[in-house]
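Hey, why these numbers?
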Amino acid sequence: MPPSSAIRKVAFLGDYLPRKCGIATFTTDLRCAVAKEFPALQCPVVPVNDLAEGYAYPAEVRFEIAEQDLPSYLRAADFLNITDVDVVCVEHEFGIFGGPAGSHVLALLRELRMPIVTTLHTVLREPNEEQRRVMRDLIRLSTRLVVMSERGREFLLDVYQAPAAKIDLIPHGIPDMPFADPNYFKDEFGVAGKQVLLTFGLLSPNKGIEFALRALPDIIREFPNIVYIVLGQTHPNLLRDEGEAYRLSLERLAKDLGVQKHVVFFNRFVELEELMRFIGAADIYLTPYLTEAQITSGTLAYAFGAGNAVVSTPYWHAAELLTAERGKLVPFRDAPAIAVAVVELLRDEPLRHTMRKNAYKLGRDMVWSRVAQLYAKSFEQARHDHSFIGRKSSPIKTLDESPGQLPELKLDHLFRMSDSTGIFQHASFTVPNFAEGYCTDDNARALVLALMLQKLGHGSPQLGAQAATYAAFLNHAFDRPRGRFRNFMSFDRRWLEEVGSEDCHGHALWALGLCVSQAGQGSFQMLAAELFELALPVAAGFTSPRAWAFTLIGIDEYLRRFGGDRRANQIRETLTAKLIQRYADAATDDWHWFEEVVSYANAKLPHAMILNGRCLNNTTMLKLGLKTLRWLVKVQTSPTGAFRPIGSNGFYQRGQSPAQFDQQPIEAQATVSACIEAYHATSDMFWVAEARRAFEWFLGRNDLGLALYDAGTGGCRDGLHVDRLSQNQGAESTLAFLLALAEKRALQNTLTSFKESPVA
């Protein structure tokens, strides 16, 4: 994943080591490879337990599912949702999940809010009805499907009619080990000077090892120094049901054939490092499976990718890999054919070496680091493809669905985010994040909101007290000797910088100007007037267009009370001239904007032009503001007609496409405010409709169909990512929604008074 990726957390769901099975090994290897390749990525694991007591898992395992307990699957879904996982990577095999054909996992997947990338370890060509139903639901619920062979892809298309665009072909991962002479490893196992055949993996009857044993007498006659190593424990499920009966039958068969001196059973589950030494010691790897229905074999992938010469029956994965002199295929259940193939390879060292080289070269595309990169691409694609299947519809109605009705004004979260110092910058979900302290930007916006609500008649003793706190914060933030506002303050009330940003200064002037113009707050007005007078002069030298815009909005409010202030009028003229010049420098026939990039809080620039053009009766200025705002709302309209703010992940550079994500609430609020000002300047109902469209973005009329406003808390989520909502409800986002709501309520009052459309 590129450094700009917004993916922070990928959860892996499936069996996991130390549980002894192939899926557990794969999940562990994949998770470790992804974590190693992308160190900043969090990779929690949710395993499925077949034992009531579970397993001694490592620290990355965060939540455990009981295989047959359906409620535990639902609890796991809740855990994944609430811990804000970006992508869930499912390792699917019918036998590891509870319910008919492993159907319990579907209940989990239906509840997930994030994209799902499912690796299909088995794709059946002839499923029964339960298996077919489960697979079709799995395909529907998964955002991306990963198969490890071309045959698997074909089955998905032909048998299950899976959408081709959903499927990613990613090979089974393998460890990266050097191409080495088998003799280098043989002395470790006491087989120096001997020819070594190897089969490894959990033992079960479908592995066909009895046919390899029956081939040994013919092989021994040609190569008396042959040793056949069978490495691996009996499969836990088989061990539970039948004990060691299968292994014992193989040992008896070896004795009956008289080859017991040439056969070694290692009855244990070996760690990766030791396994690779076993593979390294093998001259030939044997995989005599009994049927073709094996879409993926991890053991084959490991041996093949390490550069083993392979003799195999033609099950699906082997038939795909072992072509072009990369191995030998023999018929199923045919011991003489196995013997002939092994003898031929042992006799012909150049052929065997060629096979090994060919296999090893192809295996370079299968090493885990490469596979991790391919999965990362699948994760990123999933985020773009995600359609939120199974998402619960939003309880909040858009304004089109509920004409004239606006959401309830709820200040619970505003008060939760505020204390006796001011409003906190950020939240962890809905809880204030003390560690990131306060900032002047947000306290200025909070003061603006409090003043707006008081004017609308929504004042309360608590709101009034909090407004005083926000004003006190601005007073403390202002450094009088420098004439500048500081911005960031720690939780222990230490300023973290000597001078804040120009935009921060502009925000403060906006709030102070509004405070000066607002009747009924005499004490606030006196303080605000003093601070405004002291802080305004420096703004004339600012270089940030957004700082100019915020300052101009503040100046307009201030001049409503003190219209004769010559300096304020002069600075207004200076800043509007700067904005006009910026437009003249940047604009072209198809680029009606003030800069080479459309970035953040964009609508504030035309808002300032419209406001001052209207107040100054300057037609040229007003037309420029309306022209740029009309261009901006067109740019911020999705193909479906919904509001789509310029994304913060790249913005909109001239000559490039606008970034679609991450979408920020401040953009919607700025657009609502600017469009309302455009309506006041023109009486054109077009702008009322545009304000409504931008406001509806908060309510779920957006690219994902998800509401950012949380009716339960009264807060607003911090942004819309490509595949999900941010679940944090910080000050900027909550204030953006509440400011937009306050302005919509004021507009609705105006329209009702003048008997215009009640839909604001």
